[in-house]
Amino acid sequence: MTEKAEDRKPLLSKKIDKFFTGLADAWNFVRRFFKEVFVPPYEFREVVQQCYRIGVESLPLIALTGFIVGIVFTNQSRPSLSEFGATSWLPSLISIAVVRAMGPLVTALIAAGKVGSSIGAEIGSMKVTEQIDAMEVSATNPFKFLVVTRVLATTFMIPILVMFTDFVALMGSFLSVNANENVSLTTFFVQVFEAISFLDIISSVLKALLFGFTIGIVGCYKGYNSSKGTEGVGRAANAAVVMAMFLIFIEELLVLQIVNAIRMM
Amino acid sequence: MLKDVDLDLYKGENLVVLGKSGSGKSVLIKIMVGLLKQDKGIMKVLGKDVANLGTKELNELRLKIGFSFQNSALYDSMTVKENMEFPLVRNVKNLTRKEKDKKIEALLDSVGLPQSINQMPSELSGGQKKRIGVARTLILEPEIMLYDEPTAGLDPITCMDINNLIVQVREEYNTSSIVITHDLTCAKVTGDRMAVLLDGQFDAVGTFEEVFPNAEDERIKSFYDYNFINS
């Protein structure tokens, strides 16, 4: 049997070795994705099925969350703006907040929990029950069928879900603004679109693509590398969520710096 | 785990590899299909050195080997029909939809489970899953069948059904097989030759009557005694 990583003498310490080995494994996993995604067969049917599972089946939860976020954020912002007599700025404020940050972030965090854990658990349990081995011995590429399809699905569907969240959040906000400031739907959305720029929309879509990719690749990586047993599967699902959420926040921060730098130009 | 292992599998024979749990039996067949890689030595299957094959050649070899997993390894998000179709649609391009359906129905019929075609694996019993697993393995018409603990976790009656199925597969499909088991009844019913794995080596190779029951090695003797005298 080939020597396992755990049996080799550690370079610095076992923990540090394990960390860097894990990083290298993750990097190789991402590299393999980009290598396999452009090579046939493309498993279109599985991609479409995953898009349905990830996108359509997440709609109710995303809709509810987005709606609540829109209402809550509007109601929380109103007191501060009304001190300056600036409640007419609410639609603009909400649209900037939702489109630039809250829409992508809230959608990604919900998706990381729902979709990321589901992918991690599904692939993890396939690993421990030898289903992945069964695919391999039937001359099917399990990486392409399981990983590539799911990562493509999350990358495609999260931006669509983000746009849906943005819309639902703005509708929630409109209901609040309409109830308090008696603003019509037309007036509300004219202000919404006047406030956001092309850069806001592009950065939101690019962020969503990045978040979608992260959720998919982390979920698949954790599942594919889960240890044996039910505990391993549980850990994989949990780790998929935690790691994805952590990376989403890091990416949000990085994209924010880049977009702000572009705005300053 | 395995040391100085040297064994041949002949065409049309069922070779049973026996040994204690953890002796390396499953490792051996996983090396045969390239799921694991050996540290030393050569594993040749159908004339090919498995460890040195590229992805394409390994997949071509795998199409000629059927692997029946210990826990069946049915894809639990797919129906029985979809499980059977999975390797077929990806590896056999010149069959029409009708021909594929006919092939699947014929195989399910041969394992005695035609009615299960639209069921999910979770709706099947352990024995049914094993039989569907074997049927799925046969769909690509392999030359070699590998059975990893085919009777593990099954009641004695279902074990006999599986044992008879293994014999039937050899007779109907003219496959050569390696059966990994520690179940001597399975070994006796299915095997043309036995190979007992002890301490990483094949300690005794021959027919059931040659290896058991008058074995001189105490470990092999106790294997036989426990299975047939104490049960």
Topology, pairings included?
The complex is a heterodimer of chains A (265) and B (231).
Chain A: H1 14-36, H2 44-54, H3 59-83, H4 90-128, H5 131-137, H6 142-181, H7 185-195, H8 198-224, H9 229-264
Chain B: E1 14-19, H1 25-32, E2 44-45, E3 48-49, H2 55-62, E4 65-68, H3 80-91, H4 97-110, H5 126-138, E5 144-148, H6 156-173, E6 176-181, H7 184-190, E7 193-198, E8 201-206, H8 208-211, H9 218-229
Helix pairs in contact in B: 3-5, 4-5
Order of strands across the widest beta sheet of chain B?
4-5-6-1-7-8
Distance between the termini of chain B: 29 Å
Give the helix level of chain A as a range of percent: over 70%
The CATH superfamily of one domain in chain B turns out to be P-loop containing nucleotide triphosphate hydrolases
What would the average pLDDT of chain B be, to the nearest integer?
A: 87
Shape estimate of chain B = globular
- Largest sheet report of chain A: none
Number of strands of chain B: 8
CATH class of one domain in chain B: Alpha Beta
What do you see in this structure?
The complex is a heterodimer of chains A (265) and B (231). The longest helix of chain A has 40 residues, at 142-181. Chain A is mostly helical. Chain A has helices at residues 14-36, 44-54, 59-83, 90-128, 131-137, 142-181, 185-195, 198-224, 229-264. In chain A, helix 4 crosses helix 7, helix 4 runs antiparallel to helix 9 (229-264) and helix 6 crosses helix 8 (198-224). The mean pLDDT of chain A is 92. In chain A, 83% of the residues lie in helices and 0% in strands. Chain B has a domain at 14-78 and 145-229: P-loop containing nucleotide triphosphate hydrolases (Rossmann fold, 3-Layer(aba) Sandwich). Chain B contains nine helices and eight strands. The longest helix of chain B has 18 residues, at 156-173. Chain B is globular, with a radius of gyration of 18 Å.
Provide tags for this entry:
heterodimer, A: 265 residues, mainly alpha, 83% helix, B: 231 residues, alpha/beta, Rossmann fold, six-stranded mixed beta sheet, two-stranded antiparallel ribbon, 9 helices, 42% helix
